[in-house]
Amino acid sequence: MTVICNSSPLIAFYSIDRIDIMRQLFDTVIIPEAVYEEVFLKMNKSGTAPDFIKVEKANDRNLIKLLELQLDHGESEVISLAVEKGIQKVILDDKQARQTAERMGLKVIGTVGILMLAKEKKIIAEIKPLILKMMEKINFRLDRNLLNNILNTVNETPV
Q1: Cα–Cα distance between 113 and 133 in angstroms, integer?
Q2: 3-state secondary structure of 3
């Protein structure tokens, strides 16, 4: 499966040294140039992305400008690139970006959804320690009630 991904999920998985989860779930992760710059040029001094992550240019400047009225540049490029390439699945965490993508007919998954999918596919045994580590390392924000609902859904002990 090919997906188009925004910065925050990549940053979250890199922060806990588990980018391998994305590698195991997706054949190809496409990122627009803005995401590449944010994740691999600012965070990773070598500027290199793993081989399963491909950088592509979002070309529809009009759509990007329109989306940027409500979203940041990276999110706008993710959605625009998905529309341009006809790829239905995007990885976004920001609520407004997720809603915008869904209104445009895209299927959205976020960082927590990826963890839930990884547990379902037995790539990981538990999501709770990984979410807690993300919260500690990068101040990953997740409402406590929502977190407990998610943990209940995947049969893990609430916090």
Answers
A1: 16
A2: strand
Q: Note the pLDDT tens digit of each residue in 48-67.
A: 889 999 999 999 999 999 99
- What is the per-residue pLDDT for 48? 84
What pTM was computed for the model?
A: 0.95
Helices vs. strands in the chain: H and E counts, helices first: 9, 5
Measured CA angle at 30 (ends 118, 98), to 5 deg: 70
What are 93-128's pLDDT values in tens digits?
999 999 999 999 999 999 999 999 999 999 999 999
H/E segment holding residue 20: helix 20-25
Q: Take residue 115 and report the two structure tokens written for it.
A: 């963890």
CA–CA separation, 6 vs 139, rounded Å?
17
Of 91, 94, 135, 96, the residue nearest 114 (C-alpha): 91
Total residue length of the chain: 159
What is the share, in percent, of the chain residues with pLDDT greater than 90? 93
Instruction: For tokens 């989860």, name the residue.
Output: 21
